[in-house]
Design brief:
Layout lengths: L1 H4 L13 H19 L29 E2 L2 E2 L1 H18 L1
Antiparallel strand pairs: 1-2
Helix pairs in contact: 2-3
């Protein structure tokens, strides 16, 4: 259901990738999509949000570097705060 009911953004990891820049670019992109499509921050969710039928565990540990033990927690909230900061700049 996630691919049919949401906008998915992948953050690629590879050797030499600057993870901080990747996260910031993703936060900026997310804020832009929110602004132009009138999406509230409460609707910004990780892939974890959409359970996968027939898989165990049903919830994907993605994006793993923004989750704690495979679940949204403080790091995911930190990311959402970054998104909110970029959103505020757009809407000012």
């Amino acid at each position: 259901p996630g691919n049919r009911n949401s906008i998915a953004i992948e953050m690629c990891e590879h050797r030499g990738n600057n993870q901080a820049q990747t996260i910031d670019r993703t936060a900026r992109l997310t804020a832009s999509l929110m602004y132009y499509h009138k999406i509230p921050l409460s609707h910004v969710v990780p892939h974890y949000h959409w359970p996968r039928a027939g898989y165990s565990p049903a919830n994907k540990d993605c994006p793993h570097f923004l989750l704690e033990n495979g679940r949204p927690g403080p790091t995911w909230e930190w990311f959402k705060n970054r998104v909110a900061q970029h959103y505020q700049r757009l809407s000012s």
